[in-house]
Amino acid sequence: MRIGRTMVALLALAMLAGPVLAVSPPRHTIDLSVTVPEATATGVGGAQLGLALADSIDPFVAAIGLTGQSGALVFEVERNGPAARAGFLPGDLIVAVAGTRVRNAEQLEWMLRDFDSDPLEAEVIRIGTGPDDLLAALHSAAGRGNRDAMLALGDASLFNLDGQREFGAAEEYYLRAYSLGDARAAYRLGSMYMTGKGVDIDYAVATRWYRLAAEAGLPAGQHALALTWWNGRYWTGQALVTDHAEAVRLFELAAAQGHAPSTLYLGLAHEFGYGTTVDYAKAGEWYDRSIASGSTEAMVRRAAMAEAGQGGPANPRQALALLKSAAALGSVEANRQLGRKYREGDGVAQHPLRAMEYYRAAAEQGDAPAMSAMAEILLSGYGVTRDPQAAMDWYFRAYQAGDADAGFALALAHADGVGVRQDRGKVAGYMLGAIRGGSNAALEEMRSNADGWEIEVREDLQRLLQASGFYQGEIDGVFGPGTQRALEAAASAG
């Protein structure tokens, strides 16, 4: 009874707890005219400007009395970066850029990519003089039982708005909010344990928190719990299991409450028959709902269905339009697919320069296959000015990004001096890196054509295999059974 009375009292206090501020905070204008052009050298976006942006701002805006306000919340500002020099501070809520309302962090990223106007101004809401005043106000409100403030403080710790890098402190704030009956806290706690941010990864604990959030009817909790079933991370108490049918049930519950991410997975479920029967018509309907919310992945999947004639007659024109829409919104997959289409003339007129534009858009976001495709076009000179040196630069970037075949290309280039200074001392390193990275082409080359390489390269490769613990034989450049077994072992070990 005593515990029950305490919980009632706490809940009553939470009902009475008001927002942090009695009046709307002032708005400030920050000049981005120099900042954006400065960042365009490496591509514009929050990261290039030196900003870390929050995915969710709801607790913050509710806690400061601005429920319903959209924008992108700044969690971190890189010291001496472009954004810091412009005047941004952690805790700033960016609500408009160049007079255009900012809906969320993702939209802001793409707004910044498109803007090159001068002058360019950002409108921000700032509490007091910066993050210290914001955090002080949130602590004050949390002390009065304001659950939004507790969640906001947890988010601030988890994403380092306070600059302390004490990520685990978020758990305490979330637990306080959950003790007052806030299911959003359960969802956040589940996410901490699922991702290992601030705590050790523990799928059992994550499952338990997600289940509590889902049972409370929170759409984000239902979606997160569905993903544990979908991805084989649901902990039954004895094992991690997969159950696509249960995932579909939970996705449907979340989607019924307007949770947009669930609509994409329902499209995938009906397209591929995960947890339900294959139904292209239903898949298309769910994808269309997901597209309406801005999902580029749904656009790409809908394009594939249109091109294959799934759920209706084949419609290459619709497929192309969907891919272009997704590419314009930054989809790596769409940009890569469009690059291939224009490179090969698949459903469009062959246009190597346009292919390069799409490949570059994907490559600049770190896509290794697109980088290698750029290298291949530049090396061949088909439809573009041949540039072996630029090709090798792209191959090197692709290799660093994880494309093992790019390592094989670099081995060939250094052996022959194509686009780089001939340096046989680097050949074996790239070759072994390619083999260990999974390049079948590199492995097959050493299986069937090792004798075509200079003996110094073969000896270097044996030395590297020996240093890595795969080879114990003589360094003689002879690729007999022992060396071949070592190559196979290196390929298997990764």
Describe the structure.
With 494 residues, this protein is an alpha+beta fold. It is built from 26 helices and eight strands. Strands 1, 2, 3, 4, 5 and 6 form a six-stranded antiparallel sheet that branches. Strands 7-8 form a two-stranded antiparallel sheet. The protein is globular and about 75 Å long.
Write a concise synopsis of the structure shown:
The protein is of the alpha+beta class and 494 residues long.
Q: Care to count the β-strands?
A: 8
Low-confidence stretches: 1-17, 39-44
- The dominant shape is globular
The number of helical elements comes to 26
Largest sheet: 6 strands, antiparallel
Structural class: alpha+beta
- Radius of gyration, in angstroms, nearest whole number: 27 Å
Task: Assign a percent range to the helix content.
Answer: 55-70%
Mean pLDDT: 90
**Content of β-strand:** 5-15%
**How many angstroms separate the termini?**
60 Å
Key phrases:
single chain, 494 residues, alpha+beta, six-stranded antiparallel β-sheet, two-stranded antiparallel ribbon, 26 helices, 8 strands, 60% helix
List the helices and strands and how they pair.
Layout: H1 2-16, E1 27-31, H2 35-39, H3 46-49, E2 51-53, H4 58-63, E3 72-77, H5 82-86, E4 93-97, E5 100-101, H6 105-114, E6 121-125, H7 131-143, H8 147-158, H9 169-179, H10 183-195, H11 203-215, H12 219-230, E7 234-235, E8 240-241, H13 244-256, H14 260-272, H15 280-292, H16 296-308, H17 316-328, H18 332-344, H19 352-363, H20 368-380, H21 388-400, H22 404-416, H23 427-437, H24 440-448, H25 455-467, H26 481-493
Antiparallel strand pairs: 1-6, 2-3, 3-4, 4-5, 4-6, 7-8
Helix pairs in contact: 7-8, 8-9, 9-10, 10-11, 11-12, 12-13, 13-14, 14-15, 15-16, 16-17, 17-18, 18-19, 19-20, 20-21, 21-22, 22-23, 23-24, 23-25, 23-26
